[in-house]
Amino acid sequence: MFDPLLEDKNDPLSHFRKKFLIPQKDGKEQIYFLGNSLGLQPASTPAYINEILAQWSQYGVEGFFMGDSPWVNYHNKLTQPLSCITGALPHEIVVMNHLTINLHLMLASFYRPDNKRFKIICESNAFPSDQYMLETQVKHHGLNPAETIIEVHPREGEVTIRTEDIAAVIEKNADALALVLWGAVNYYTGQLFDLPAITAMAHKAGARVGFDLAHAIGNVHLDLHPWNIDFACWCSYKYLNSGPGGIAGAYIHERYHTDTSMPRLAGWWGHNKATRFIMKKGFDPVHSAEGWQVSTPPVILMAIHKAALDIFMEAGMENLLKKGSMLSDYLIYLFREINKNAGKEIIEILTPLSKGCQISLRVKNNPKQIFEELMENGIFADWREPDVIRVAPVPLYNTFTEVYNFSEVMKKLTA
Fold first, then answer.
1. Residues 247, 393 share a domain
2. What confidence tens digit (pLDDT) does each residue in 239-259 have?
């Protein structure tokens, strides 16, 4: 018999909950299952910001070069933690901009359509930003999105996409395929895709492959470098808890770092560090992922990011993945029990077992009303039209008892 109170008592990560600011109402902590949309604020965040503000007040612009932690090197504090989280080499990571901007920058380098290879394969129902990014990139090259972008759909009557169907579409379009751009975890269903398999398929077809890791980073196991992925981009405000609109990141495999023939949209901060301040014409990129930087980094956003990443390093990614899997497995078990006891499926679980923290639920009767009543019961969840409720119990600050209490509320609301 699984005892959530006992599991919480014996949880080696339980003390990390105190490192976050849990939303409260009438002095009572709420159940926050929205880490898939915006992670909670680390309690240490103000101290990290104040360190930057103190340098700014004392040194002005010389804060880039003076003080205990000069801003010009601040990037180096972030790449090692992100390496542990993504499975990329530290020099393959650049912390910059925001997710969609970084995807545009990556496609400027990795999507080079010609008369033979010009097609892009992506998942159906990708997050709208990815759809708009691909549409406008294709139009920028003077191509027709309807003829260029190929979406892979679930089969009739199914909600998730089979790997063999991805393989079939790639093989069918191999001669004309330029790029596969895929969301590692689907934002709507929570489906975790087989990234190494998709990468191998794309490369076999002669195409490059990139991934949107918005719902994957800090949530599921990643090994970007060993999987031989060409590039990937992510945001930091979901599972990485780095603040609304937090600074994002990108990975570029090291084999591209010294390829000066590769086109890119360049800026001063991506220029060779040894000659950056000589201010001469002629772009000479840094021979790392930092060579794709464009603008001066926002150090305050980086400090917020570091506050969260330091917690990840203390907890250990392997430990977080283990607990995250246990939380979501427990949630699925409880909802299957609700259906079993009801004698019918009153709550459909859309998310496959191969998953991260997010579980997407389709309530058969009065879904919008039930969603609205969740907040009244102190539960933060997420609504996606037309009828899906998303929840994400995350290992850093959620508990097994919260998962149990959520299931009890849902059992009552769906009765």
1. no
2. 999 999 999 999 999 999 999
